[in-house]
Amino acid sequence: MKRVLVADDAPGVTHFLEKGLQANGYETAVVHNGEDAIEAVLNRQFDLMILDLELPMKHGITVLDEIRRQGIPLSVIVLSSHHGINHKVTSFNHGADDYITKPFQFAELLARVRARLHNVHVAQSRPSSPLTFLSFKGIELNLRTREVRVNGNAVQLSSREFLLAEAFVRNPGQIMSREKLLDDVWGYTYDPGSNIVDVYVGYLRKKLGRHLIETIRGTGYRFTYE
Questions:
Q1: Residue 173, in any domain of the structure
Q2: Residue 184 belongs to a domain with what CATH number?
Q3: Which pLDDT tens digit goes with each residue over 149-174?
Q4: I need a labelling partner for 148 at 20 to 30 A (CA). Which of 71, 83, 86, 167 fits?
């Protein structure tokens, strides 16, 4: 089931959208300000967001900027009362995929949602050449030979260290929970009594650079841009 995040400060609008989207087979979540929108996108998995521009706490354009800066592949449909072309162009320039003005017909919005999600599905299903190299901020991973270089210098990583480094380099800027890392790297169901993820993060910090892996208290870790 596809998951849609609705970010709008008008309860009437969010209730209307939730009811309509759920009736058409979508799972929904709602936030009412820009800060909560960013937090939801960073910490939960969504396929599409419907975003009002005039959000309290953080403007919709700021939300768009943060999502795109983090490199999160999320389709975003702006839903706004601004009809001017400048607002539309600005939204597209900051990473919006579509723009609908209020008042709107739900049938049109639903068609746009389906079109965006269909386009993403088609793009993801196209065959492509397998990746051989990953790189980020001076770190180079050869996925075929498992060779690692940091600023041009060879670094030896164990197989688990390599998989953990790969998980981070594939998701720069995204918060990676301990649960997800344990599942991706070790294939384990999360055990709150285990500190194996923390131990291996410590190993990576020593080999790749302590400044690259940021601890997100109570959540996990993030490969930082700073």
A1: yes
A2: 1.10.10.10
A3: 998 899 998 878 888 999 998 888 88
A4: 71
